[in-house]
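<goal> How does this chain fold?
<sample>
Here is the protein in question

***
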Amino acid sequence: MERRLVSIQTIDALAPIEGADNILQARVMGWTLVVKKDEFVVGDACVFFEIDSVLPDGPEWSEFLRARHFRVRTVKLRGVLSQGLALPLSILGGGDAPREVDLRERLGVVKYEPMLPDTTEVAGPFPGRVPKTDEIRVQSALGVLDELRGQEFYVATKYDGTSATYLNDAEDGFIACSRNWALKRSGNPVWRVAQLLDLEKRLPPDFAVQGEICGPGIQKNRLGLREPALFVFNVYDVRGVRYLDLSEMQAFCAEHGLSTVPIERVVRGAEATAHAHTLDGWLEATRGVYAGTAQRKEGIVVRPLREQHSPTLGGRLSFKVINNDFLLKDGD
């Protein structure tokens, strides 16, 4: 499921905030956020802006976020975590607004991107034969918890770097990509890693690897690396039109001399059957630091041991959970 950055959602709960007369704590989907008092009642529809929405400069309804450069991000207000923004339907100015539609274009909202490639480095669009790397946050798709319940699963560490995709296309040759673009051969981190690992020769035809590049000059180099490194989290079989299962991915990377992201847990059998899969439980599981460092980790990614389809997401069953401590204290 492609992430809907701005959509019509429901105010599922409201609660008072100690010491606050003008704001309330609300719940929308799996998110907690702060809303104005008397602006909503439980069951009301709202326009919900997910984290990393950048509101337009101009409308009266977005002016209150000018001091934050119009970006919706995780904040703490009166001791309450606020993740997202709920505004009344009146900001739409009338007209229909179906719940399944992303309203970002209608409202002039864009997604915050911390690292945009220099346009002179862009070689073309992201290859259509490979899915992009954009995991859904669990709070935006709580149905995935029910889908995973009873399944054997694994938990991978989410590194704080920059996403890269490398494809050895049988027709078009080797392609190196950022999150959204194919890049020209240059000194950027994506191509530097490709050259360091000799990926053009290592990757078999019609396979793609996707991973996080970490190292000097990338985010805050929380792993303390001396040179860029790639940590694979996906291997995609283009001809088979499928992601490899965990065991297949690990074998593929071992065969081709590639490192994977750390696998924190593999849960099988009775333990998997009994696992509760609650939102609070997964948020707690994100806490901690990267191994060998004092740096808080960004979060985790959770998937079944064997790839499977998610009716909730309309694609593979896979979701990320971001560490709230990281968002509040370390996030950009």
